[in-house]
Hints:
Rossmann fold; 7-stranded mixed beta sheet; extended; disordered N terminus
Amino acid sequence: MYKWFLTLGNVNTCEHHLTNNLKLKQMKHLRSITVFIALLLSLQSFSQEKLAVIPFAFTDNGIISVQEGKEAQQFLIGYINKKHKHFRVSVINARDVNVAMHKAGITVETIDDFTTKEIAEAIGADYVLLGTIDKILQGSSSIKISSETTKTNNTDSNDTFGTTTSSTTNTYQATVYISIFKKDGSSIYDKSKGNIFIDYNADSWKNSIIWQVRHFPLYN
């Protein structure tokens, strides 16, 4: 009888050890899977291709505006970062792009002397986006509003005062041209977009940029 209990105790002990060993193996397996997934995600982030947005060639009523061209560059980069979940590329910040271009001697005046492949190599980008914005003041209109105010004084006579206010509204038309190239110089996108209607906002070109972004082949 004693031997029978001893044997039964040994069996229970073995089962306990086997269960613990199985749990340990499962935990190690899960830990290995977790490490593999984290490594895979980090490699994907590390290997994500980069897009360089070049300052736009911006003309305001036929006059080249370097400052507005950089504003358009910043706006587009900001919008892409805002919608980064929809992009399979990361966008290089404006300062790094502009510094790299400056070091390579690429300016608004000299950019036509460089191929898109050379621009991509100078910046270290997988894709290069070139854009042009033509903004034109179509016209302006003024509206005058007159009003009269009557005031009764102590002598039982009425004094009438007249006021006139006026406002001027400017009408703009803007067309945005955007091209995207791979680092080997091949084109993957080339479109132009004007205002859907004549806009009263001087920054109406932003709406056309947003429309174009949603049609980029890099946008999901």
